[in-house]
Amino acid sequence: MRAKIFALFLALALVLVLIINIFPLQFSQNMIVETTREQMLNNATFLASALAPHSTLTREKVLLTLEMAEPNPNTRLVVCDTSARVIYDSISTDSVSDKYLLLPEIGQALRAKDVFFCEYRDQAFHSRLAIPIQYNSEPLGVVYLSQIDEAQGKVLESLRVQMRNISILICAILFILVFFFSSHLSKRFAVLLSGIRAMQDGPYGKTVAISGKDELRVIADEFNQLSKRLEDTEALRQTFVSDASHELRTPLSAVRLLVDSILQSEQMDAETMREFMVDIGDEIDRLTRIAEKLLMLTKLDGAKSLKLVPVNLTDVAKRVLEALVPLAEDANITLKSDLTENLFLSADKDGVYQIIFNLAENAIKYNRAGGFVHLMLFSREDQVVLLVDDDGIGIPEEHRAHIFERFYRVDKSRTRNGKGGTGLGLSIAYKNVTSYGGTIEVGSSPSGGTRFTVSFPLLSEGGELHA
Ligand code: ADP
Fold first, then answer.
1. Given the CA of residue 427, which atom of ligand 1 is nearest to it?
2. Which of 172, 296, 308, 389 could form a disulfide with 445 if both were Cys (CB 3.0 to 4.6 A apart)?
């Protein structure tokens, strides 16, 4: 991570240094060349046009013309005739007067071309310019200027030094910034990483504190939420496992006790033995019920997306009532129903059966002899509502908030007779109801018993949700 940031910094610094050190200097150099060219061309043009009216060129005429001009002391002026012979040279030492100046630029100027060369070397601009002198469009000679401009060269050189210093300063600042930024970033990543590792090794619930408002902070927040969720899930799982093993141990201990009693009694009569065996059978039934319901809950917990289909709630309610007739008769309970025909919801058929069966079975189980269970089904606005009323023992107010919890029973003793419940039926019903987008509530029935109210989004017969 750090190495990557530094590599990026190096690349950035290199580009920056190149930009700072090449473009402004190149631009300044071009500007100086262009200004020099214009200046020299102006001077040469002035001279050439002053000399042009003469039909022949002589040193005297040049000197006369030069009196009108203000020659640049840094510039060497040479005037040649058409045969490239020097008529005038402004310098005395190494003068080329009366010699033939056979330079390519003089040759080109004699062919009526303006020629300019400029190069920057040894911290000075070396420039040469040659333009033709014409008399009635006929070549008369050449004005040749050459100059070495050290002043401009110094300007360019000092600019180069300044640019270099600026580059060094920028690089140093960048380096410090990148250093702090990368160490800050590395530290924050290390915090996140330590959190992830801690969660891998130890208990869930580890949170990390990362400052700032960037993406890393978002990742840290997500991590904290995930960690919290895992912690909650783990706690639930542990409670569930310990509750489940406790619930399984109870009938197993009862079986153990009954078996021990049979084994210890040497002369047990057949009738008592039979009673013991019936009790053992009841406990085994209870174990089976717990195992089945646990399996069902595990399936519901693991189900990712349920495949929901339109289900006729009325038909399912009728089937449940039919199935419960023997149980109700045994308990001397009257089954009553008021069912609106063809009410549909989007659900899973078996799940809906489980809901109604659990509620109606409980209403029979937790009732008293001579009592009743009343199933009502109707639609209200865009909802289909199922009421399961009984006039049984009721559920005290303080227990109502808990009865959908796993293994929760209001009175543990009253259902511990082998036929007793598992404390899982309502949690299965709750899980099913919510997975179909419904709600389930518990309250008192008008007769003083219990009322369960279940609502689902109503589906038309065509399978569409009511608006
Ligand atoms: P169980 O298998 O024990 O019936 P449930 O989850 O179905 O488990 O019910 C949880 C507890 O809620 C029951 O043990 C019982 O105490 C109470 N309960 C449920 N339905 C009724 C009811 N209709 N009347 C009174 N108590 C009820």
1. 6
2. 389
